[in-house]
Design a protein that fits this description.
Layout: E1 5-16, E2 19-31, E3 36-40, H1 47-54, E4 62-67, E5 70-71, H2 77-87, E6 88-91, H3 105-116, H4 120-133, H5 149-160, E7 167-171, H6 179-196, E8 199-203, E9 215-220, E10 223-230, E11 245-249, H7 261-267, E12 273-277, E13 283-287, H8 313-324
Parallel strand pairs: 3-8, 3-9, 6-7, 7-8
Antiparallel strand pairs: 1-2, 1-4, 4-5, 9-10, 10-11, 12-13
Region (Disordered): 284-326
GO molecular function, one term: DNA binding
Organism: hydrothermal vent metagenome
């Protein structure tokens, strides 16, 4: 089966004044139709940028990104507008970005269909189905001020499904919710994914996301670093309540992989390693003998918890001048 989403060596560069910021650099990822995955990573790792590219809000700078057979790099502005309007549903951290406060829950859901020219009968039927799916049919006539934060986010989820998208994207949808409501919202994503067969990608910092999704992909420095996959088959020793995950390090198209910082620090990896094949067909990565890590002024090797060195203003100006002169 052909993947629903294919990203190969995806690059996104933002230009700020005379500076260029590489937000995504060489990201590789495939997603199957109907899959529910979570994207995690530190702030600034490229998660939201990647989501914006998939949703057609940003154009990629280079590489390949295909969604449901569409090459997003080759779409015209008109085609990209149609893609966003007809194929993608967005859910934001702030539910206000999805909702209009002076409309009721039902009216908010019906608005995108009204704009799209859906008939009144179809509009009412689909709005009712969505409100029932998110458990808010009894609150259909309530405005936002009459709903809790969790209920508002449920309405926002229903609004994102009003255009019957094939791809649902959530950017920190539980970021402003308490832990109990976050769990309920993630469980709702899981039910909607099963009910409507939607390909769903959730960017989040919520550590509980692994319980609700099939796969968790970690992005580090603009690249896919590792992924955690729910194991399909249980052993006889495991109960139904136990869920087992397998974690993998991702290898990109150029054969590159990212070794987690804590692992590099533990075994003393610096900038050179040796790679050898083991007798059982595995690969051994070892630090080069004598290639010690750099030692700081305090006489010890820096660790991943150390603060970065402070750059004085004069040094920063010299650095910028040298960069501009390149």
């Amino acid at each position: 089966m052909k993947p629903f989403i294919v990203c190969e060596n995806l690059v996104k560069i933002y230009k700020v004044a005379e500076l260029e910021v590489i937000a995504v650099q060489g990201l590789d990822l495939t997603v199957q139709k109907g899959e529910l995955i979570g994207i995690v990573g530190a702030s600034g790792s490229g998660k939201s940028t990647f989501l914006n590219v998939l949703g057609g809000l940003d154009r990629p700078s280079a590489g390949k990104v295909e969604v449901n057979g569409r090459n997003l790099l080759k779409l015209s502005d008109t085609q990209l507008d149609a893609y966003r309007r007809n194929e993608v549903g967005f859910i934001w951290q702030q539910s206000a970005r999805n909702l209009i406060p002076y409309l009721t829950a039902k009216e908010n859901i019906e608005l995108p269909m009204t704009i799209a020219g859906v008939s009144p009968r179809q509009k009412r039927a689909w709005a009712q189905e969505l409100l029932e799916a998110v458990g808010l049919w009894e609150h259909r006539q309530h405005k936002l001020a009459q709903l809790s934060g969790g209920q508002q986010q449920r309405v926002a989820i229903a609004v994102s499904l009003a255009n019957k998208p094939s791809l649902l994207l959530g950017d920190e949808p539980t970021g402003e919710l308490d832990s109990a409501t976050s769990d309920d919202t993630l469980a709702l994503f899981q039910r909607l994914n099963e009910q409507f067969g939607l390909t769903t990608i959730i960017v989040t910092h919520d550590p509980q996301v692994s319980k609700a999704v099939d796969r968790v992909v970690t992005i580090r420095d603009g690249r896919t670093s590792s992924e955690t996959v729910r194991r399909a088959n249980r052993t006889e020793e495991q109960t139904d309540a136990e869920t087992v995950f397998d974690e993998y390090v991702m290898v990109d198209g150029a054969g590159r992989l990212q070794i987690p910082p804590e692992m590099r620090e533990k075994i003393g990896l610096s900038d050179r390693v040796t790679i050898t094949m083991s007798e059982d067909g595995g690969v051994l990565v070892k630090p080069v003998a004598g290639n010690d890590k750099k030692v700081g002024r305090d006489g010890r090797s820096p660790t991943i918890t150390d603060e970065p060195p402070k750059v004085q203003p004069k040094g920063l100006r010299r650095l910028l001048d040298r960069w501009k002169a390149r």
